[in-house]
């Protein structure tokens, strides 16, 4: 990636120098975070593309489709759930930069554990990757926000869009490399390649950390020695209680995967509600911050519905493709995991268009508000599942659905994602109360937790998510939610105050 030197006497990180090294017009630190996220996403999405296929494959764990979807959804829910304590850990213990470095190491070890040919170590590896991803996700996005001069910096939304391209570069390459090796050569060798990707990401982050804003090294509200000791004691106590409980269940012969999946899925629904309520009840927030939090609840609910449907692209749609789609183009057959590269390549093609369009509309005074963008994203993700009804109908007729049906579904979801996700990241940093700086990015990811936890509970209950009735119901829910948000856009806008 090329960089250039531009004059900017007020740039963060270069006080008094008069010059700032930039990355396509953005602070140079964006390149470091861009590359770190690209390699981390390469490892994460490569493993994610293999996960449901490995779970159902005869040469893998050979589970049913509903069980595989439940495990996949619980895993995703846990990844995003752990972003909240990841933000707290940075706020209270290490600061964002050091937390991200630790996270990269844990993720790499998790992928190496997945590479071991054992079902026991496989689930331990999933746990390590989830913990590391939780530590990294909230903090790396927060550090992107640190690079800009506050909420009114006109480059801010564009910076998050560029960052989003880095995510999707890694996500695009991962299924093509890791997916192919995993499906065609050896599942565990594919997981080992994911570990290599994270190792590369960690190395370049450590080399480029000098370009980050000084705020990324700050621990905003450091814990006292007494608080650290008390927190450690409580954590070990709860860990011991869980260990004793599950040991008792296992020794009694009653243990099944649902003893783990059901509690985690329920936690994924309960904790987001509890966290939002706790922040909203915080008396130390001033009137402006309280009002913004009221507005933020609308965005949160919208995002939860969106991700509930969107994330099924890696489970419901992937499992459907494995069993019921003609995975070939012009007679050339490709691995099922390659479908997971469709969305990121479309993101890379369309994200610059969206970034340019938002800026052009802003200059003309016609840029849609954040709430309108969110409503559009919901309607589009609902439309994608209405479109899914066509290949489902073809499969029910005993035929294989053409690959282009799935490509069309991913295209509609991609347009919806670009209307909602980068804007959601940006508005979270703008509306976050100062007291909850890094933690608010974790709250944003809890919307994904809630959506995936809902999918997990449906799968655990035995609901066929490839059934036409449930697909139509989910599609209708998203469209109705989008329409409702649009109708109340003026009310939400008034709660947001001067945040656009």
From TrEMBL:
**Transmembrane domains' residue ranges:** 45-64, 70-90, 99-116, 122-140, 161-181, 187-207, 236-253, 259-277, 293-310, 338-359, 371-390, 402-420, 441-461, 467-488
A matching Pfam family? PTR2
The record's subcellular location field reads:
Cell membrane; Membrane
Chain spans, region Disordered: 1-20
Could you identify this protein by its name?
MFS transporter
Keyword check for Ribonucleoprotein: no
Q: Where is the composition biased (Polar residues)?
A: 1-14
Q: Which GO terms describe its molecular function?
A: dipeptide transmembrane transporter activity; peptide:proton symporter activity; tripeptide transmembrane transporter activity
Q: What does the UniProt keyword field contain?
A: Cell membrane, Membrane, Transmembrane, Transmembrane helix, Transport
Q: Read off the SUPFAM superfamilies from this record.
A: MFS general substrate transporter
What GO cellular-component annotations does this UniProt entry give? plasma membrane
Which domain of life, per UniProt? Answer: Bacteria
């Amino acid at each position: 990636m090329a960089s250039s030197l531009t004059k900017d006497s007020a740039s963060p990180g270069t006080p008094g120098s008069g010059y700032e090294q930039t990355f396509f017009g953005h602070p140079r630190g964006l390149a470091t975070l861009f590359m770190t996220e690209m390699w981390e996403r390469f490892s994460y999405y490569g493993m994610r593309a293999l996960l449901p296929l490995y779970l159902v494959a005869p040469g893998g764990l050979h589970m049913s489709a509903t069980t595989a979807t439940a495990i996949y959804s619980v895993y995703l829910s846990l990844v995003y759930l752990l972003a909240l304590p990841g933000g707290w850990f940075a706020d209270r213990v290490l600061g964002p930069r050091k937390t991200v470095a630790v996270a990269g190491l844990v993720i790499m070890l998790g992928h190496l554990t997945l590479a071991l040919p054992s079902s026991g170590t496989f689930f331990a590896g999933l746990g390590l990757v989830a913990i590391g991803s939780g530590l990294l996700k909230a903090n790396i996005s927060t550090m992107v926000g640190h690079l800009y001069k506050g909420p009114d910096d006109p480059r801010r939304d564009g910076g998050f869009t560029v960052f989003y391209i880095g995510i999707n570069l890694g996500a695009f390459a991962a299924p093509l490399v890791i997916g192919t090796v995993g499906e065609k050569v050896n599942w565990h060798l594919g997981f080992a390649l994911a570990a290599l990707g994270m190792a590369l990401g960690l190395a370049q982050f450590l080399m480029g950390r000098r370009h980050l804003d000084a705020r990324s090294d700050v621990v905003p509200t450091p814990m006292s020695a007494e608080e650290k000791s008390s927190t450690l004691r409580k954590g070990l106590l709860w860990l011991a209680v869980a260990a004793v409980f599950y040991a008792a269940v296992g020794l009694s012969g009653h243990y099944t995967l649902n003893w783990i999946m059901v509690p985690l899925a329920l936690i994924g629904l309960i904790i987001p509600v509890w966290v939002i309520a706790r922040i909203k009840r915080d008396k130390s927030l001033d009137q402006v911050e309280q009002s913004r939090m009221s507005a933020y609840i609308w965005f949160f609910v919208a995002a939860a519905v969106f991700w509930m449907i969107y994330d099924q692209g890696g489970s419901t749609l992937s499992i459907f493709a494995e069993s019921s789609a003609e995975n070939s183009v012009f007679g050339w057959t490709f691995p099922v995991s390659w479908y997971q590269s469709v969305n990121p390549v479309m993101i890379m093609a369309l994200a610059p268009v969206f970034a340019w369009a938002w800026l052009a509309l802003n200059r003309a005074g016609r840029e849609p508000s954040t709430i309108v963008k969110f409503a559009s994203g919901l309607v589009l993700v609902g439309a994608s599942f209405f479109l899914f009804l066509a290949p489902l109908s073809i499969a029910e007729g005993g035929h294989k659905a053409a690959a282009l049906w799935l490509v069309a579904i991913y295209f509609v979801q991609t347009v919806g994602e670009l209307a909602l996700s980068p804007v959601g990241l940006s508005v979270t940093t703008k509306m976050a109360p100062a007291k909850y700086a890094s933690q608010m990015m974790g709250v944003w990811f809890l919307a994904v937790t809630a959506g995936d936890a809902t999918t997990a509970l449906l799968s655990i209950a035995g609901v066929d998510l490839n059934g036409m009735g449930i697909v139509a119901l989910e599609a209708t829910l998203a469209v109705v939610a989008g329409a409702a948000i649009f109708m109340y856009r003026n009310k939400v806008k008034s709660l947001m105050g001067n945040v656009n």
